[in-house]
Amino acid sequence: MFRIISFNLLCAGKDARRWENRVPLVCRVINEYQPDSFGVQEAHIGWMNALRANLPAYDSVGVGREDGKEDGEFAAIFFRRDRLRVLKSDTFWISETPDRPSRSWETACTRIATWALLEEIATGKQYVHINTHLDHVSRLAQVNGAKMLQRKAAEFPGLPVVCTGDFNVPQGSDCYETMVSANMGDARVLAPETDDCCTYHGFEPAKIQDIIDFIFVDRATIRPMKFQTISKTFDGAFYSDHYAVCADLVF
């Protein structure tokens, strides 16, 4: 069994909800749920340094989207160093020139996806984790991003592939249907134990209840057993304006 999480951290935030104040809450979630690998969205270099310092059980891969180094948000992947090692990893841009920092398709922001080929140290079992944050404005960029993610997943025939992310679209949208049109499926839908909780709440879950964060899996090689939205607070404090989503998977 492998546990995977997708986690939009909220890059900034205001006042008591500033990102620095929420670092301990985010780390509490990770330490409580102990994913084998997790993908983050909206993680600037401050977030990355804080997570690396406070989650010593994890290594990470990923780059900033603006310069391919440390500038801009990361779509990084963290993985448990005691269980997994990375064999290969890279980042590509959601654009017509994916090998360098760039934008296409009227996207409002530079968008990227990071992937890692991970191997279980004890058994040699391998799986691919892809993590992304698609555009929040351009439908064309969203759909083309989904197509790029599908093509990347197809580069690893026979291996389990997991794709996490904030897709900025609901179930049933063109982008979502593109993601589930080939071998990929939505772990929320496939898991026998699941929920229908919102993932984006904007700190007002009584008013905002959007499901836009997903864990997609290769249906041929992965069986989701449990899906859960981590809809909790800590003494009334939210850890982000999104709830993280978590899936327990059998490869």
Please explain how this structure is put together.
With 251 residues, the chain is an alpha+beta fold. The chain is built from 5 helices and 12 strands. The protein has helices at residues 19-33, 45-54, 139-154, 174-179, 187-190; strands at 2-8, 37-41, 58-61, 77-80, 84-93, 112-120, 126-133, 161-166, 184-186, 213-218, 223-229, 245-250. The strands form 2 sheets. A 6-stranded mixed beta sheet has the order 3-4-2-1-12-11. A 6-stranded mixed beta sheet has the order 5-6-7-8-10-9. The longest helix has 16 residues, at 139-154. It starts with a strand and ends with a strand. The model has no long low-confidence stretch (mean pLDDT 97).
Quick structural overview:
This protein has 251 residues and is an alpha+beta fold.
Topology overview:
Blueprint: E1 2-8, H1 19-33, E2 37-41, H2 45-54, E3 58-61, E4 77-80, E5 84-93, E6 112-120, E7 126-133, H3 139-154, E8 161-166, H4 174-179, E9 184-186, H5 187-190, E10 213-218, E11 223-229, E12 245-250
Parallel strand pairs: 1-2, 7-8
Antiparallel strand pairs: 1-12, 2-4, 3-4, 5-6, 6-7, 8-10, 9-10, 11-12
Helix pairs in contact: 1-2
Keywords:
6-stranded mixed β-sheet; alpha+beta; 12 strands; 251 residues; Deoxyribonuclease I, Chain A; 5 helices
In N-to-C order, the SSE pattern is EHEHEEEEEHEHEHEEE
Largest sheet: 6 strands, mixed
Helices, by number, come to 5
Query: What fold name stands as the CATH topology?
Result: Deoxyribonuclease I, Chain A
Level-2 CATH architecture: 4-Layer Sandwich
Flag low-confidence runs: none
- The average pLDDT value, as a whole number, equals 97
**What's the arrangement of strands in the largest beta sheet?**
3-4-2-1-12-11
Q: Can you identify the CATH class?
A: Alpha Beta
